[in-house]
Amino acid sequence: MGFGAMIIMERLDFVVRRGEIFVILGGSGSGKSTLLKHMIGLYRPLAGRVLIDGADVTTAEGAEREDILREIGVTYQMGALFGSMSLLENVRLPLEVHTRLPPAAMNRIALARLQMVGLAEYSDFMPAEISGGMQKRAAIARAMVLDPKVLFLDEPSAGLDPITSAELDQLVRRLSSSLGMTMVVVTHELPSIFTIADRVIMLDKESRSIIAEGDPRVLRDSSEHPWVRRFLRRAETEDLPA
Predict the structure, then answer these.
(1) Contact in structure between 122 and 83 (CB atoms under 8 Å)
(2) Residue 142's beta-bridge partner residues?
(3) What gap in Å lies between CA 18 and CA 241, rounded to an integer?
(4) Which residue in 198, 141, 179 sits closest to 24, CA to CA?
(5) Pick from 160, 120, 115: which is nearest to 136 by CA?
(6) pLDDT of residue 66
(7) Fewest CB within 10 A of the end CB: N or C in the chain?
């Protein structure tokens, strides 16, 4: 994984299990968001494959690639809502692009997704008229509107206060539980990690590889890698034995 001659990560080999919340961790500049962008097909890896339900997003083209990408939903760090559209129009947009449903049916589906994230009564509001946390919820509703098999969330709690962040974590867990949806999340927020993650991988900038994989609670308490324990305990180097 990299750009041209610059290698960011190499020898990455992992599987996201169906129905789990899988979290990608790492320090600043370790390549977390870059890895996510490779997984959703925005970037092509220098070598290797990215399989989504058995289909290789890295080599697929045309209609085949379109079919693969319809199986995933994505939310970006800043929400990426269109400011000139209401929440309902934002959520409905993927249906307009990818389906031939009548407008009334698209509106019903979009409203149902807004209901799932607690925003049905704000469907006519513009993004600038709601809070940052509500914008993140609306972005999740839009990402779910095509009923994807995998939902990718890039730093969902970024820029939120602790209370709003905790509410968003509970929403993610509730959606995962009720829908059985597979989720891949990039975050470095420790409260979020321990609230939502079923399993994590940790990227390391120095070794350019995965240095830990598993339950974050187990890694926090018993990882053989000192840096992994420090990260998950938010501890200084001298607080832990070498």
Answers:
(1) no
(2) none
(3) 37
(4) 198
(5) 160
(6) 85
(7) C
Indicate whether this model's pTM tops 0.70: yes
Which residue in this structure is represented by tokens 């891949």? Answer: 184
The whole-angstrom separation of Cα 95 and Cα 99 is: 5
Q: Domain spanning 2-71+148-239 has what CATH number?
A: 3.40.50.300
* CA-wise closest residue to 31 among 190, 198, 207: 207
Nearest by Cα to 91 from 100, 104, 82, 78: 82
For the record, the structure tokens of 241 come out as: 């034995």
Q: Which residues contact 76 (CB under 8 A, 6 or more apart)?
A: 139, 154
Reply yes or no on whether the pLDDT at 238 is more than 50.
no
Residues of the chain with CATH 3.40.50.300: 2-71+148-239
Number of H helices, E strands in the chain: 9, 10
